[in-house]
Write a structure and sequence with these properties.
The protein is 61% helix and 7% strand. It is mainly alpha-helical and 163 residues long.
Length: 163
């Protein structure tokens, strides 16, 4: 494989590093609580697209069409990010009566505090909001909260296309 082929396969957005950093931030905000993969998928979506759920908020990522479909594909990207950050001893995998859950390690906070970029700061603010507001909800409750809002997101762009 030559260098050009390698460059084409690198995706700067929604890769395992970016997803892992977002999840690490969420887990750090929730420390010492742990979450399973599906709850992390919901909390990740809420963190980056907060305006979809709360119109008074500004989302971290731009409002792109059909972003509600991200929920479907997000788990594999997040899982790769979790595994990457587990190898760096920033996230730990726990096996308990609820199944497999993930938790930030004590190394997470010093690592995240060393990040000073605007994106990292805003990510921490949004993750804090998502964790405070939604982390106590079950998967079933989160799905019930998010499903009507995600339908609105899809319709919002479908209506724009028709106009």
């Amino acid at each position: 494989m030559d260098i050009m082929e390698t460059k084409k396969k690198i995706n700067p957005f929604n890769n395992s590093v970016e997803a892992g950093l977002r999840i690490l931030t969420i887990l750090n905000e929730a420390f010492p609580n742990s979450f399973d993969l599906q709850n992390l998928v919901y909390l990740d979506y809420l963190t980056i697209h907060s305006a979809d759920i709360d119109k008074t908020m500004q989302s971290l990522h731009p409002a792109v069409p059909y972003r509600s479909g991200e929920i479907m594909v997000r788990s594999s990207i997040i899982e790769k990010g979790l595994n990457l950050f587990i190898t760096k001893n920033l996230i730990e995998k726990q096996y308990n009566i609820n199944g497999i859950e993930y938790k930030a390690t004590e190394n997470a906070m010093p690592f995240l505090e060393s990040l000073e970029e605007t994106y990292s700061t805003k990510l921490q603010e949004k993750a804090n909001w998502a964790v405070r507001k939604y982390s106590k909800h079950s998967k079933k409750e989160l799905k019930k909260i998010m499903t009507p809002r995600l339908s609105e997101v899809n319709n919002e762009f479908n209506i724009e296309i028709l106009q």
